[in-house]
Amino acid sequence: MTTWYEDAFRPGSEIQGKWNGKMYVVxxxxxxxxxxxxxxxxxxxxxxxxxxxxxxxxxxSEINSLLAISLTETSFKNFLIDxxxxxxxxKEVSFYVMRYIEGITISNFIHKRGQDWIYxxxxxxxxxxxxxxKSGYVFGDLKIENMIVSNYGDVDLIDFGGVTPKGRAIKQxxxxxxxxxxNMGERVAEESYDLFxxxxxxxxxxxxxxxxxxLSKMLPQNRDLDQLTAIMRENSVAxxxxxxxxxxxxxxxxxxxxxxxxxxxxxxxxxxTQSTLQMPWLKICFAASIFIFGATLYMYW
Length: 301
Known about the structure:
Blueprint: E1 14-16, E2 23-33, E3 36-43, E4 46-53, H1 56-70, E5 80-88, E6 91-99, H2 106-113, H3 118-134, E7 137-138, E8 147-150, E9 154-157, E10 164-165, H4 191-206, H5 212-215, H6 225-234, H7 236-240, H8 242-249, H9 256-267, H10 275-300
Antiparallel strand pairs: 1-2, 2-3, 3-4, 4-6, 5-6, 7-10, 8-9
Helix pairs in contact: 3-4, 3-9, 4-8
């Protein structure tokens, strides 16, 4: 069965905005979900991420939120590149174009580099959330899949479908990251809502025993923070940041700015294990030294 977007987003397909007239060439599909489809596109030599939404009202709300955040003097400045309509099978579909950032999931990053990178990643993600909150919005659907990590723990948010003006009902969520799922608060767009999701995101990233697989299937009356505390106890990194996690899970921070400062103070003495960066090069150098030593013996034997 052909999806509504399949033909329009084939590699090499051209997408032209109806009103602004800009042309984009599709390189590949990046993802598709209930609220839209995202593709890697190029215009000239520049590459962008283009998101099209088939639910016009929700998608326009997402564009409006992203535009407001893009106008701020933060790292999100000029994040939104273009917004327009396209025609798919005779139907107008709205889309927007944003910066494209290369990266991997936080889970993959710490698997490759080591769990102590969570201190840097956590700080960068909290800074991003603080910027969103200062713009008058809550990110809403904060989860591992909606952020990427690049370079030296740099963080970017990549799906703005859940962004909600402060004070309104959260419009998009993922249950296990939702404080309502854990009976720990209402589904209202507050800074504390994102901070709760932030704590779950970190715990899920550090969950080596995959406890979350079972937790997500628990009956509502059996869900409480004791299950999350068990993960903190069995992981040394989670145990170190437990004071922060407990405050976030119990909605004890007054703002994300307060949480950000608390986090920075808590992890200020922690160092990234250099072996996680140097090990590949050490292996290469070690192998090279053996090769040179062997070649030397062969020449002078």
